[in-house]
Amino acid sequence: MDFVPAIQSCLKQYATFSGRAARSEFWWFFLFQVLVLIGTGVVSDLLYALASLALLLPSLAVGARRLHDIGRSGWWQLLLLTGIGVLLLLFWWVQPGDGQGNAHGEPSVA
Question: What residue numbers bound the domain in which 36 lies?
Fold first, then answer.
């Protein structure tokens, strides 16, 4: 998946926590989020805060779908609340998908 289709996919599935997300979709959206936050941070603190709030839900949703792709529950993202848990999540997010259904027993998306 390329940059623009990945962004479109994530924004269309703004709050969809079920299903799966490929590594490319997750990482392209991550790059998009970083670029938007840097750009808005340069312009204004208020704009940065608004962009952060607007991108929070889709970033959690694509993170959950990415975890489903490797056979884990999206609830593992609660590790983000700890300092060291980010490293474990990064390790999981870079893993290739398992080709199975997601952690909630839904069928695999072809």
Answer: 3-93
Rounded CA-CA distance 4/13 in Å is 14
In a domain, 102, yes or no: no
Residue 75 domain-assigned (yes or no): yes
C-alpha–C-alpha distance, residues 42 and 74, integer Å: 32
Is 88 contained in some domain? yes
Provide the residue-wise pLDDT of the chain in tens; the chain has 110 residues: 899 999 999 999 998 899 999 999 999 999 999 999 999 999 999 999 999 999 999 999 999 999 999 999 989 999 989 988 989 999 999 988 877 654 554 544 43
CA gap 31, 87 in Å, rounded: 18
The answer as to whether 101 is a domain residue is no
Residue listed under structure tokens 């490319």: 24
Whole-angstrom distance, CA of residue 110 vs CA of residue 29: 21
Q: How many domains does the chain have?
A: 1
Label residue 3 left, alpha or beta by phi (over 0 means left) and psi (-120 to 50 means alpha): alpha
Length reported for the chain: 110
